[in-house]
From TrEMBL, chain B:
Membrane topology designation: Multi-pass membrane protein
GO biological process: transmembrane transport
Organism of derivation: Histidinibacterium lentulum
TM segment ranges: 7-26, 71-92, 104-124, 155-178, 208-228, 263-284
Keywords: Cell membrane, Membrane, Transmembrane, Transmembrane helix, Transport
Subcellular location: Cell membrane
Family indicated by similarity: Belongs to the binding-protein-dependent transport system permease family.
Listed name of the protein: Sugar ABC transporter permease
Keyword tRNA processing in annotation: no
Cellular component GO terms held in the UniProt record: plasma membrane
Alphabetized InterPro entries for the sequence: MetI-like (IPR000515), MetI-like_sf (IPR035906), UgpAE/MalFG_permease (IPR050809)
Length: 350, 295
């Protein structure tokens, strides 16, 4: 059953407020697509439009090649996992998981079999008689997942499903989700504001900001070639350092110094460097000079934060290369991995 | 707290507890005592009769009338008031246009004083001048005017209608507040699971506000059983006792006929009924609180 999803000029306003600006997006059958962006950028709105819980102001939604704008939610054959799980508190785990089947009038015995199978997939088969109130956050999450997969819909929608879990459990559930999705091969649209989650789960990431798509690409693409300064700053932790300045005759001048930057037109520009693409040198020997603000051992690496003028620059160095606070250091930027953005529009150059 | 502190606590509390007890319960105790005496206008000196008063009252046909009237009245008002209140709340919760205005308008009957309501509806039901008759004839629901309040067959239904008209906004307010606490994503999850509006009502909304409904029903049972002003002003319990309920009967027997002993007997019976209802309320409320703590 093909379930490619296509959004054409999808537009949504709430009164005078534009929550989604003419969105165009194609999602392949079986793909795990992550919508990533800060809070309020329109991720949930996109998802609710696809689900049919909101009506688009204009534009079309196609599922499996068919326009579904006028199809009621129940006939769109999709399942959604909510951030707060939205379990029915008075029903047992089994009743929760079986609810979509009950509504669809699946006979009792067939229902019980499918509930057991779905529960087994998320390792909840031993807790079928509990009520949601008696479960931990992670267990509730699993029930919500089981309720979504029990119907074998052609599309999964997940709105920040892991954000109510603690960090450790989130990592575990992330891996399980990824595994489950590949196993079921069901098209999945997943919303999150957590870039790590997006990077680890997605086949492709759609980065949204201010109701607009900023970039669409594989995790590798958006990490290595961010389309603009927003994506550059949003993807990767700790974030890429962005330094505004001016290019004149192949030289980039910024507040605290200058460096060679051949092949760029004159005018304002922003250069960016990821923490792992910056090397620490002796003071005066690099492209930038600063003092150590903090030095944190991460285990396999040390994160140095260096104060350069008014800005803080994140640098990743070896585990044994920590520095004392306030020590003067120089920083040298790996030219091959330098990102250059237009000073006015913030768009990537090259 | 040490044992001594606890003693001190009780000593300090005792005067206020005593006063509260006296205030709250002395009238009731007085009523019970009164019910064992025969007192009347002719023989103002109370004469102790023990349970004779009860025997007499229970064997009287009046008591049966009042008892069954009270049940019909209470159930009629409670059922319709809650159903109508719930329906109105559902409608308002859908986000009607001019919601604020609509809500204020619907609340009007509730804020009207009971006596004013009763007088208003006596006019409405009037066979010659009343709007009810003229409306029914104009819409073809009836072919001739009827004296709704003077006919023993229709009087009870007529007063129940007025009480429901006056009381449903109260239930509506409570249900509206409850409906707004229902988890929206649960409703949406049910929508995506394929449930239509009725299924969502049955499977999500009603279970979520079950306790509010229970508490509200028991509360309106108590309030309705005690209702006095509307019935008294509209019918004085008539015609032919058709609308006499405990409060009107007690009032009439006591202050109309000065048969205080008999009135007190009715009073004691109604206190017993209310005690049962209050116990029910406490149980239901405790259940609601337990649930509130869990979620
Ligand atoms: N029903 C609504 N009415 C008015 N504004 C809304 C509604 N739903 C969402 N919005 C607004 O639209 C914007 C995008 O919301 P949403 O899609 O929920 O963001 P997020 O990316 O955090 O999921 C927010 O500013 C939000 O306030
Ligand atoms: Mg959201």
């Amino acid at each position: 059953m093909m379930a490619a999803v296509e959004l054409r000029d999808l537009h949504k306003t709430f009164g005078a407020y534009t929550a989604l600006e003419r969105l165009n997006l194609e999602i392949e059958d079986g793909e795990f697509l992550v919508l990533l962006g800060p809070s309020g950028c329109g991720k949930s709105t996109t998802m609710r439009l696809i689900a049919g819980l909101e009506e688009p102001s204009s534009g079309d939604i196609l599922i499996g090649g068919k326009r579904v704008n006028d199809t009621p939610p129940r006939d769109r054959d999709l399942a959604m996992v909510f951030q707060n799980y939205a379990l029915y508190p008075h029903m047992t785990v089994a009743e929760n998981i079986g609810y979509p089947l009950k509504v669809a009038r699946v006979p009792r015995t067939a229902r019980a079999d499918r509930v057991r199978a779905a529960a087994a997939k998320v390792e909840m088969a031993h807790l079928l008689d509990r009520r949601p109130g008696e479960l931990s956050g992670g267990q509730r999450q699993r029930v919500a997942l089981a309720r979504a997969i029990v119907r074998t819909p052609r599309l999964f929608l997940m709105d920040e499903p892991l954000s109510n879990l603690d960090a450790k459990l989130r990592t575990v559930m992330r891996a399980e989700l990824r595994h489950l999705q590949k196993e079921l091969a069901t098209t999945t649209i997943y919303v999150t504001h957590d870039q790590v989650e997006a990077m680890t789960l997605a086949d492709r990431i759609v980065i949204l900001n201010d109701a607009r798509i900023q970039q669409i690409g594989t995790p590798k693409e958006v990490y290595e070639r961010p389309a603009n300064t927003f994506v550059a700053g949003f993807i990767g932790g700790p974030p890429m350092t962005l330094i505004p300045g001016t290019v004149t005759a192949d030289r980039f001048t910024h507040e605290t110094g200058a460096l060679d930057l051949p092949g760029q037109p004159d005018g304002p520009a922003i250069i960016g460097a990821r923490p792992e693409d910056i090397r620490v040198t002796a003071p005066g020997a690099g492209d930038l000079d600063g003092t150590v603000f903090s030095s944190e051992l991460l285990g396999d690496a040390t994160l140095l934060t260096v104060r350069v003028g008014p800005a803080l620059v994140a640098v990743k160095v070896g585990p044994d290369d920590g520095r004392d606070m306030d020590a003067p250091v120089g920083l040298s930027l790996d030219r091959a991995k330098l990102h250059v953005f237009d000073g006015q529009t913030g768009q990537r150059r090259d | 707290m040490t044992r001594k502190d606890r003693w001190l606590l009780w000593i300090f509390l005792a005067p206020s507890l005593g006063l509260i007890g006296l205030f709250l319960y002395w009238p009731m105790v007085g009523t019970v005592i009164e019910s064992f005496y025969a007192t009347s206008f002719i023989s103002p000196n109370p004469e102790f009769v023990g349970f004779d008063g009860y025997r007499e009252v229970f064997s009287d046909r009046d008591f049966d009338d009042v008892f069954w009237n009270s049940i019909a009245w209470t159930l009629g008002v409670v059922v319709f008031q809650n159903m109508l209140g719930f329906l109105a709340a559902m409608l308002l919760n859908q986000g009607l246009p001019f919601r604020g205005v609509t809500r204020a308008l619907v609340l009007m009957p509730f804020v009207l004083p009971g006596v004013v309501t009763a007088i208003l509806w006596r006019f409405m039901y009037d066979p010659q001048l009343g709007l009810v008759n003229s409306l029914m004839i104009r819409t073809g629901l009836a072919s001739e005017t009827s004296a709704w309040l003077a006919n023993p067959d229709t009087a009870m239904a007529a007063v129940i209608f007025v009480a429901v008209w006056k009381g449903f906004p109260f239930s509506m307010l409570i249900y509206l507040a409850a409906l707004q606490t229902v988890d929206r994503s649960q409703l949406e999850a049910a929508t995506l699971d394929g449930a239509g509006p009725l299924r969502r009502l049955w499977d999500v909304t009603l279970p979520a506000i079950r306790h509010v409904i229970l508490v509200n029903v028991v509360l309106t049972l108590i309030l309705t059983f005690n209702y006095f002003d509307i019935v008294w002003v509209m019918t004085r319990g008539g015609p032919q006792q058709a609308t006499h309920i405990f409060p009107t009967k007690i009032y009439e027997t006591g202050f109309g006929q000065f048969r205080f002993g008999e009135a007190a007997t009715y009073g004691v019976v109604s206190i017993l009924v209310l005690a049962v209802l209050v116990a029910l309320y406490v149980i239901v409320q405790a259940g609601a609180n337990r649930r509130g703590r869990r979620t």
